[in-house]
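Work Package 4 report. The design task specified in the project plan requires that, given a folded chain encoded as C-alpha cells, an amino acid be chosen for each position. We show below one input record used in the internal validation round.
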C-alpha cells in the first residue's frame, strides 16, 4: 500500500518573551546566565569609558536541529538615565539575521523609591 505522511511546522514569532539573569562583574568584564528571551543562555559584557559604553555578546535558544541564537550589541549611555543601542541579532542564522538600532530610559530601584516616597499619598 501507499503511505502518505504530512508534516506541519508552526513558528511563532510574535510571542511575549522573558529574561531573568544572574550576573557577576569582574572589573570591566561581566559574565551572566539564566533565562534569555524565554530560553536558557548566557552572555558576556565588557565596559569602557567609565561604564558609558558596553559591548555585549549573548547566546541562547540552543537546539540540536538549528544554530543557537547569537546577538551582539553596543550600548552607549551619554547621560545617567538615557541609553542608545545598536547591534546585529541572530547573525549565524541566515534567514533570521537583522541589524537593530534603538534607545531607552533606565531607572534604578533607588530612582523608583525616590519617586514614590516623594509623591503625596491620598
Amino acid at each position: 500500500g501507499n503511505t502518505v505522511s504530512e508534516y506541519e511546522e508552526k513558528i511563532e514569532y510574535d510571542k511575549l518573551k522573558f529574561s531573568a539573569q544572574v550576573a557577576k562583574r569582574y572589573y570591566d568584564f561581566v559574565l551572566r546566565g539564566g533565562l534569555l528571551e524565554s530560553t536558557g543562555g548566557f552572555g558576556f559584557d565588557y565596559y569602557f569609558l567609565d561604564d558609558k559604553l558596553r559591548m555585549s555578546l549573548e547566546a541562547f535558544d540552543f537546539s540540536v536541529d538549528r544554530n543557537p541564537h547569537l546577538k551582539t550589541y553596543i550600548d552607549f549611555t551619554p547621560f545617567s538615565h538615557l541609553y542608545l543601542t545598536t547591534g546585529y541579532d541572530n547573525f549565524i542564522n541566515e534567514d533570521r539575521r537583522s541589524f537593530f538600532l534603538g534607545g531607552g530610559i533606565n531607572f534604578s530601584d533607588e530612582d523608583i523609591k525616590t519617586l514614590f516616597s516623594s509623591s503625596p499619598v491620598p
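DSSP finds one helix and seven strands in the chain. Validation will be extended to a larger panel in the next phase.
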